[in-house]
Amino acid sequence: METLRAAESALVMAPLVKRYDSQVKDRGDTLHVPHVSNLSATSKTQQSEVTLQTVTETESTINITSWYESSFEIEDIVKVQSAYDLRSEYTSKSGYAIAKVVDSAVLNLYSSLTSTDVGTYGTDVTDATIVAGIQTLDEVDAPIEDRYFVIKPSQKAAIMKLDKFVKADYLGEWNRPTPVKIGPNNRYLWGEIYGIKTFYTNQVSATAATPTQTHNLLFHKEAFALALQQAPRTQASYWQKDLAWLVTVDVIFGVAALRTTFGVEVRS
User: Fold this and answer.
1) DSSP letter string over 37-78?
2) Residues 200 and 188 sit within 8 Å (Cβ to Cβ)
3) At the topology level of CATH, where does 14-36+58-267 sit?
4) Which among 216, 225, 64 is positioned nearest to 149, based on CA atoms?
5) Between 20 and 30 A from 3 (CA), which of 19, 25, 147, 204?
6) Among candidates 208, 210, 195, 196, which has minimal Cα distance to 263?
7) What is the maximum alpha-carbon separation in the chain?
8) Peptide bond connecting 15 to the previous residue in cis, omega within 30 degrees of 0
9) For residue 171, what is the DSSP state?
């Protein structure tokens, strides 16, 4: 008999963003990430000196101030009378709760983006909306590699209603999956749209309003940064006074918008 598990939202963001775990692993509560500007080319004439360029750089700061824990107790009577390994089951759930916090922290960085938003709150994503978002990234020279699209399940459903993405006769690929069906390598990797890996998750930020404001994201990997100073760890100890096992999972991390023009909020 299998243990019934609670429904879990998709966790997708941590592997998709720039990581700085190693730089903060040992010490410190602030990480300074310098920006490196592009240089220009200058015409050179014979017997003339080169043109020196003065570059004033900026930086992004990642504050390692987020510390979260998820703890529980399993009393001996429960352990003895249960047919299941409840400690293992709840440890998994605590680990998931911690991962969810990290994922949400990255998704909430949408408000730090400075590129022009595309789409309209309360209106489903359209093909034109996606193209406009891609154009925005193109115009700031965000590399085509490592671009990602993260959407609410409701917007996955909306895109599935667009014939050009799901009908083989629009694509001339009668014997192949259509672009939104390629994959998945990950249960939340839905496929690719215009060559961009597309994920869906209930963790996408939404603001309560009329209509609800959903903040889907189209971004390059360097738009956001995540630094896990302490990866999720599990600790357990037996408390004789409670006749129970106390289990705690905790994490220490920081997130920041790194290249604020390399991401677009896709509103719906």
Assistant:
1) ---------TT-----------EEEEE--EEEEEEEEEEHHH
2) yes
3) phage-related protein like fold (3.90.1690)
4) 216
5) 204
6) 196
7) 90
8) no
9) H
Contacts of residue 18, defined as CB under 8 A and 6 or more positions apart, other chains included, come to: 221, 222, 224, 225, 226, 258
**CA 118 centroid distance within chain:** 19
- DSSP-derived letter for residue 215 is E
pLDDT tens-place string over residues 60-85:
888 899 999 999 898 887 776 666 67
Q: E strands along the chain, which residues?
A: 18-19, 30-34, 59-63, 66-75, 118-119, 147-151, 189-193, 196-200, 206-207, 213-220, 224-239, 244-257, 263-267
Q: Which two tokens mark 208?
A: 């309560």
What pLDDT, in 10s, does the model give residues 153-169? 999 999 988 887 776 55
